[in-house]
Amino acid sequence: MSTIGATQPLPESRSSTGFRLAMLLPGALVTFFLILFALGLVVFLALRGNDGSLLGAGFTFANFITVASDPLYWTVTLRSLAIAGLVTLATVVTAYPVAYYLAFHAGRRRGLLLFLVTLPFWTSYLLRVFAWKIVLAYNGVLNSALIESGIWSEPTLAFLNTPAAVVVTLAHAYAPFAILPIYVALDTIPKSLLEAASDLGARPFTSFRRVVLPNSMPGVLAAALVVFVPTVGDYVTPALVGGPASTMIGSLIQAQFGKANDWPFGAALAVAVMLVILAVVLVVRSADRRFGSRS
C-alpha cells in the first residue's frame, strides 16, 4: 500500500497555482495594456475621421487612401527604408569584426571589452546625437581637425544636415545592438568545428567562409532586424543632424500628432509603416529558417 501511494503524483496545491498566476499577472497586464491595447488604439484611430477631438469621429478608410495615393508619403517611406537599410548595412559590417574578435581573440579581456561595448547604454540617446552634431557642425570637431591638418582651408557645411550625417549618427547609436547578438551567435559555434576544418586542411579564410559565417548568420539577421526596425521610424536624429533631404516617415508621423493635430491620419501612417516593417520581418524570418536548415 505504501509503495502504491508513493508512486502516485501529488496533486498541485492551490497555493502553488495561485503563486503561478500571481507571477504571470504582471507580464500579462503589461502585454495587454502596453502592446495589444496600444496597437488596437492606433488601428482604431487610423479608421476614424479627424474632427478635432481626441478619438475622431465616424469610421472611414480615407486616411489609408491618402497614404496610398499621395506620392509624398511614398517618397518619404522609401527614403526611410533606404536610410534604415544603409544604417543596418553599416552597423552590421562594422559590428561583425568587433563581435568576431570578442568571440575568438579577446581572451581574458573579453569581460572588459564587453563592458566597453555596453557603455553607451549608460548615456542618453539624445546626448549621443548632440555629440555627433557638435562633431559634424560648421565649427565642429571634424571641420576644425581638417583645417588644422591643412586638408581644407575653411569650414564646410557638407557634413551636417545631410542623409550621411543621419546614417553615421544612427549607425553609432545602434552599434551595441548589432555587436551583442552577433557575438552570441559566434560564441556558440563549437570550437571542434573549427578544429575539424583545420585538420582537414582548410585555410583560415575557408574556415570562416564555410563554418563561421553560415553558423553566425542567425545572429547577423537578428542584429539587422534589431537595428532596422527602430531606425525606420526614428525622427529625433533626422530632426537634429539631418536636413530637409533627410526627412523620414517618423518625422511626418510626429508632425501629425503634434503641430497638425491630426491623430487619425498620423495613426494611419503608423499602421502603414508597421505593415512595411512586418513584411521585412517575415522576409528575415524566412531567411533565418533557410540558414537554419542549411546549418
From TrEMBL:
Lineage: Bacteria, Pseudomonadati, Pseudomonadota, Alphaproteobacteria, Hyphomicrobiales
Compartments it resides in: Cell membrane
CDD domains: TM_PBP2 (cd06261)
Topology with respect to the bilayer: Multi-pass membrane protein
Regions crossing the membrane: 23-47, 54-74, 80-104, 111-131, 164-186, 219-243, 263-284
Alphabetized InterPro entries for the sequence: MetI-like, MetI-like_sf
Family according to the record: Belongs to the binding-protein-dependent transport system permease family. CysTW subfamily.
Keyword annotations from UniProtKB, A to Z: Cell membrane, Membrane, Transmembrane, Transmembrane helix, Transport
Record-annotated ABC transmembrane type-1 domain positions: 77-286
Protein's name in the database: Spermidine/putrescine ABC transporter
